[in-house]
Amino acid sequence: MEAVFFDWDGTLVDSLGSFHRANAHVMTSFGLPFDERIYRQHYVPDWRLMYTKLGVPGDRLDEANEMWHAAYATEPDVIAFDGVAAALDRLAAIGLALGIVTAGHRAIVLPQLEATGLGSRLPIRVFGDDLIAPSPVRAALRNDPSDRPALTDDEIHNALPVHGGSIAVRDDYNGAHRQPRAVAKVA
What we know:
The chain has helices spanning 16-29, 36-42, 47-54, 61-73, 84-93, 106-115, 136-142, 153-159, and strands spanning 3-6, 13-14, 79-80, 97-101, 124-126, 166-174, 177-185. The chain contains eight helices and seven strands; from the N terminus they run E-E-H-H-H-H-E-H-E-H-E-H-H-E-E. The termini are close together.
């Protein structure tokens, strides 16, 4: 094994409270009820589906997404889980290249990387809004030859763990309950 890639939110950093507050901001802006019970009842990893279930009109999902990103970008409460920095240091000490692959946008995650002190430990970075060039390898790995410009949450969270020669560590959320899971495939 030469490299280890991690998901960001919920794996290396605790961002659940910040996610909840950003979602609450969006729902309040749309005049929709929102609390922890409602969040747990309607949570699904696909935010578009969740927002539709919560009552955001389909033709306003892009607006809701922009609101969420603006609210989340100002959240100061994204903190590294205890032991993450030391664990990354141990992995680097044995010669592994380290990085993140996240659905989070570069403009939001870069400041979080620095604020948490993890930036220098994770030099390889793929963000949800990065332009991904189409390639035969990507198409074969995802079994999807489309030429979409950025990775979706599902592509990031579902495609990564099956690639030979890598390891992906991620958090699975089920009804807004944290269920950490590590998935590995080593060639």
